[in-house]
Amino acid sequence: MYTHIMVGSNDLARSKRFYDALFGAIGGKPGMEDGRGRVFYRHSGAVFIVTRPIDGEPATHANGGTIGFRAVDPAQVDAWYAAGLAEGGSATEEPVGPRKTGLGPAYTGYLRDPDGNKLCMACPMPAA
Question: What is the mean pLDDT of the chain?
């Protein structure tokens, strides 16, 4: 449905450390910086980009926005969550674990990256 997701950052080096750890926890490779100072991540057919805002204004996060990533199992959600916390992310919403969602039962973890962007990693759980 989408071609890529891009978030802004006020400190690209800090963001690269955070996202390298976050995506590394689920088997992704470190981000590659292009000549314009953007960091690109490619994994499982998806593209995620971190950049300084091109208008020169400070990066801000979207109020009400969440970027969701798919996990293969709860262990991958836990690894992703721990890596994010270790690299400067912060816990948000309920603790990582099972939840009832509008799409059925899922195992989820929510973090904010160091710039405040809200991220979610989730995998479906079998119905009880």
Answer: 92
